[in-house]
Structures
1.
Amino acid sequence: MCLKELDSTWLQNLEKLRKLILSSNNIIIIPHANADPDALASSCIIAYLIQKLKEGLEVNVIVPEGIGLECRKILEICSKNNVNITVIKRVVSNIFKENSLCILIDVASIEQIKSLKNYINQCNKIVVIDHHAFHEYTSVSAESMLLLIRFDVSSTSEIIFDIVKRFSISIPKEFLEILITGILWDTGHFARGTSSAFRCVSEILELGADYQNAKRLITVSRPPHAKIAKIKCILRHRGFKVTLNDHDIYIGFSEVGAYESECASAMISVGYDIAFVVSEEESLHATRVIYRTREDPEIFRGIDIYNDILKQLIQKYGGGGGGHKSAGGAIINVSDVNIVLAELLKILSNLVKGKIVELEEEKVLEG
Ligand SMILES: [Mn+2]
């Protein structure tokens, strides 16, 4: 078992869940709004499991607001296996039938189911299956709830896998693979993973799931223009090293017509600490500037990019913008992007008191 048996209450609660399912006539499964792979895969498989447990039972997955692009293939797999998933933008009053059992999946607070929260008290009983550290359910009466919450796992998918095994339900290979996508998504492809995440994926693979397939399911192909924009961004860019408080910071500048944030992220993944990207905003006779930074407290100690740099541009030329420490942007009322780039460099140079050098390398096959 990839989930540790912390104490007997876990198994007792799973037994309560089984009884609740068997005694219900109508079950509604609700993941958090704008469901991600963890929320959607978990909802889909719990719906499938319920149908296996009690044939003929009415089970519906209702997703508030929408589903991300990365979930498209998961959705296809669920529909193919006869799991009913409906996305609702606005609540239709007849969703909550009398005596519904409602199962909230990957939902940490009642706010996360958006407008459905106003109807949740119509549920006969509410089960929460989740892994988040903080929960906020004060608006729901405690007696009507069964909480299946595990803080020691990385994703709801791990909990669902445990339930599938405890209930001895066999699920198709494709479902094993969407469970992996849930774990991959919530751990950032294992950048943050608990021991149970590794154990569960290992067990799932041993049951016959294909890891490459799982990864492909959540790989979203970007439009070809985005790829070209990134290549142009790298070919055009100029790089600088500034020294601030005895600390070297690498900054890239570039220009693209569209896909600025992809361009900035490309520069960050190349190795820059800060990336500025400008593009011409033809219709407004203005220039868009965006910035991205690597998440490193050392960078923010010396520079507040929005307040120290972009605000000065806005003060000089007019415009407006906003941002946080590591990402933001502005529209500057100058149509010539080169003026904006030159001014950006000047502001930066003043900020670091002239300690700025351009990174220069001969290009291949040149000269
Ligand atoms: Mn999750």
2.
Amino acid sequence: MTGNSQFIPVQAPADTSITIGELLQNAAAIVDRIDARWLLQSILNTDAAYLIAHADRSPDVDQINRFRQLLARRAAGEPVAYLTGAKGFYDLVFEVTPDVLIPRPETELLVEMALAKIPADRECNVLDLGTGSGVIAVTIAKHRPEACVMAVDLSARAIAVARRNAEKHAVKNVVFIKADWFSHFTAEKFDVIVANPPYVAEGDPHLEEGDLRFEPIAALTAGRNGQDCLRSIITQTPDYLVPSGWLMLEHGYDQAAVCHELLGETGFTRLFTRTDLAGIDRVTGGQYG
Ligand SMILES: C[S@@+](CC[C@H](N)C(=O)[O-])C[C@H]1O[C@@H](n2cnc3c(N)ncnc32)[C@H](O)[C@@H]1O
């Protein structure tokens, strides 16, 4: 893809008569068509329907230039979500910056499973570990206004993004804390604890591919076999759960068995694993005590 970026030189004077339809057609020569549409939508601050309905309109020079700059960056591999600063998750759109992991559709499974355990009509204490952009915590808080959600992350920059996302969605029942997993808490007990921790092995070749190259390494890797964070969270959780409370973890495609083993050893029962839409083991959890 990179080699083709010469077809739309960033410094070329913008042709003010070029239409939305032509811009998208030209862009398809160097980036995925859908990516090009997302980029143009973000610059024109509009939606896909507008691009289709007004394909014969011409954006202004500044918009055309900015679109070409984003195309060149996309052609060089930068993730669309970082270029547009936004990503849809569950039923909301979240701010995303290079300080946070780009929310993945498979994480929606963890949210669904957590929502199934959180009552809609009464208070429930929920903890989201490694909140990143805040997608899990904010989505849960939005769908369960009676719940009291706490969310921690080691990254102060991630916490800043998560707070902006809570504000953007007018969510008041979530508190963000910069901390190393449970280190902020002493006597607090939660009914439901969820986490999508880093779970990729250091040195995994996938880290050199696609969007992962641009994401914060601290959001991705967890020791030599990718299990460090899962292990740390599972073994500490009993001190912070109410009796019969639930822990639910997102994990890698081959980590369900080790999660079962660790949960069992730590005293969890009613263990379960659910597969994502691709049929891959994705969320494992259990009930304590
Ligand atoms: C895989 S990302 C998940 C982000 C977000 N929850 C999501 O699902 O998109 C893992 C997050 O855990 C955070 N993290 C890593 N180590 C941590 C630690 N020791 N304590 C708290 N958060 C940590 C990272 O900063 C990152 O934001």
3.
Amino acid sequence: MADYIRLVDDRWSFRDADTKQYTHCYHTYPAMMIPQVARALIEEYKPEGKLNLIFDPYMGSGTTLVEACLAGVDSVGTDLNPLARLMGKVKSTHYDEQKLKYELSAIQSDLIFYNDSFVKDRNFERISNYTFWYTEANLLKLSYLQQLINEHCSEQSKDFFLLILSEVVREVSFTRNGEFKRYRMKEESIARFNPDVFGLFERKAQRNITGLQQFNRDANGASVSVYDFNSTYGIPAEIIQADSVDMVLTSPPYGDSHTTVAYGQFSRWANEWFGYKDAAILDSLLMGGKRTKDEQFVTNSIRRELDEIRRLDEKRYWEVVSFLNDYSKSIANVAGTVRRGGVVCYVVGDRRVKNVQIPLDFFTAEMFMANGFAHQVTLVREIPNKRMPSKTSPSNVAGEQVATMSHEFIVIMRKL
Ligand SMILES: C[S@@+](CC[C@H](N)C(=O)[O-])C[C@H]1O[C@@H](n2cnc3c(N)ncnc32)[C@H](O)[C@@H]1O
């Protein structure tokens, strides 16, 4: 790692960028990639020769897929989170705008005369603890929205409206605003909380149709495929052949979901509402979710940090190692899909555990180098608009927090 270059370049912070252009406006998600980062990477770091296929092994809300569409390049994404897959699919689909507007107005006409006796599905048992999280009146309104989507929308456009409903389902629950984890509001806030369920749905629908219009105008018909395979365990050859990918563009998790970003908790509202499998245990299925008791990788780049964490707290050390075991296996599998000369861009965070900074960019480059790649450069960018929680609990003790991420590292490597 002697000639490893970290380049601090303010241009990559995209301080004033509009991150909600196109279908990027559809739905929030934890730790979203800035679209401008993906766009600039495709433009400035695309591999020599052809660029026909981009792969995102942790696609989240599908930022890479949307940007691949805008660049006219086919893409494949995978994520274990069903809500992420719904987002990835919907955000990269060229729906017929006129048809959506027509269907939306049919829904709106019925909403005007709402009466809760119209609601057919009144069974909410699939939602854990639903009376703790919702008022009965709002549950019925949400159910009515779903009923109207089913009545008025064609099979092709249903998902477009269900993704809107997904955001509303979360926003009208008693979850604290701005939190990824499931924390309930204080009683005083609940007493004042009176969300306009139908208004939220209608405004989001208008917003998303505007985003779709921009997307339909500027993206051509590149193909997008969304899957649910776990790259830690292998990449199905019938989906992506070895040595076939021109560019990998992704932002992986930077630790297990329990101690870093809780994708499963954030998504549980929608995943339960839609009855998706494994909604309650998703975080334990994600990278690092299962504890292991041996180091299954060889590292020099973060050896000192790992030893220090172990000295301070053995349990935290094994948490970190469990994540890195999965992460390094995933990298070996991802590396095998890339063609010679192909480029890999990993946008990673620098995480602190027991106040020890773990340079995940070093580790990422080291693992790719062990799998036939050369490190080109690591771009360092500031995170100006807090898409990441700026604080997490480093010790998992409630209330004990520390600033974790103000920089991101874009690790760029090329296959030899
Ligand atoms: C940082 S987020 C990706 C954000 C994405 N770039 C965006 O712009 O929204 C990481 C994603 O990795 C997913 N993930 C975690 N472990 C995974 C695994 N083993 N296989 C596939 N996806 C996984 C999580 O569900 C999460 O959506």
4.
Amino acid sequence: MAVPKRRKSKSKSRMRWAHEAIGVPNLRPCPKCGAYTMPHRVCAECGHYKNVLVIEKKVKISD
Ligand SMILES: [Zn+2]
């Protein structure tokens, strides 16, 4: 198995880490309720996908 000949310098490691930040998630407003959701996912707020109700939200019954 190939083994690195030299240890990477602090500078080289830091130069790599400078490009490994987690980006901002791609969010789009839901066409039904306007809440921001990830594309190609069911909206967590209203349960719609492509304007079709996929998951019905639980409704709290207060007494
Ligand atoms: Zn929605």
